[in-house]
Each structure stands twice: as structure tokens, then as C-alpha cells.
Design goal:
Mean pLDDT: 83
Helix content: 10-25%
Strand order of the largest sheet: 1-5-4-3-2
Largest sheet: 5 strands, antiparallel
Structural class: alpha+beta
Low-confidence stretches: 119-128
Order of helices and strands: HEHEEEEH
Strand content: 25-35%
Radius of gyration: 15 Å
């Protein structure tokens, strides 16, 4: 009898790496008074992209950015509002993610913790 091996969700996307991208004040036109939605819109516009999936929390948001009309072109980003920074959540399988991949990754890797870092000081974000 041959049984098919079941892969864990972590094995499907590979190892998670967290990269600091930049603070929101590096986006054109963004001020300390800008809303999270203005920050997100400016981030997406700079990349000619859209947010295919988005989860908002008190601490900010996590989203799947993709290129319009091009399936499986997504990457996962976090905007941490209290720190006013963007993080790129990278996997071994990078920049080819879709909506179901995002849904699985949020759960399997517990990605919401990166949105709600609170007021902890972000010195260097390494591997998770």
C-alpha cells in the first residue's frame, strides 16, 4: 500500500525571512498625519501594484501585493503602524504567491505577530 506524503504548510512555502524595507516617511507625500490608507495607497502606487488580500489590525496591516492582471505575482508585506515601517515577509518561494498561499501563510507562520509588534524598538529584524 502506497500512501501519499502530506506536506506541512511551512514546507510548501519554505523558510520565512523578515526584511525591513523602509519607514513610511520615505514615501512621497506621506506625513505623520497621513492615515494608514493613504500610506498603503502610496506604497502600492509606487510599485504599480494592488493589494490582493489584506488583514487590518489595531497595529497595522498585512497584505498580499500583486501585479494587476498577472496571477501568482504576489509578495507579502506588513505595515506596522506604531513603528511606521514596512516589512517584507519573504519565503523560499518568493514573489509568486497567490491568495490561497497568503491565507495559508498567515495561519501557518503566525504572521500577524509582525503587524502587532507594539512599541517595541525595531533594531534589526532577522530570520523568524
Amino acid at each position: 500500500m502506497h500512501t501519499q506524503r502530506r506536506y506541512s504548510k511551512r514546507e510548501l512555502l519554505g523558510r520565512l525571512r523578515i526584511d525591513y524595507l523602509f519607514s513610511n516617511d520615505q514615501l512621497p507625500g506621506i506625513t505623520p498625519e497621513s492615515s494608514r490608507w493613504e500610506v498603503l495607497a502610496t506604497f502600492l502606487k509606487a510599485r504599480d501594484a494592488r493589494a490582493e488580500r489584506l488583514i487590518k489590525t489595531e497595529g497595522g496591516m498585512i497584505f498580499l501585493q500583486s501585479i494587476p492582471k498577472r496571477p501568482n505575482t504576489g509578495a507579502i508585506y506588513v505595515y506596522n503602524e506604531s513603528l511606521r515601517v514596512f516589512l517584507w515577509l519573504r519565503f523560499d518561494r518568493d514573489d509568486d504567491l497567490n491568495g490561497p498561499d497568503f491565507d495559508r501563510a498567515v495561519w501557518a507562520y503566525r504572521l500577524l505577530k509582525w503587524v502587532d509588534l507594539g512599541s517595541h524598538r525595531l533594531v534589526r529584524v532577522g530570520h523568524a
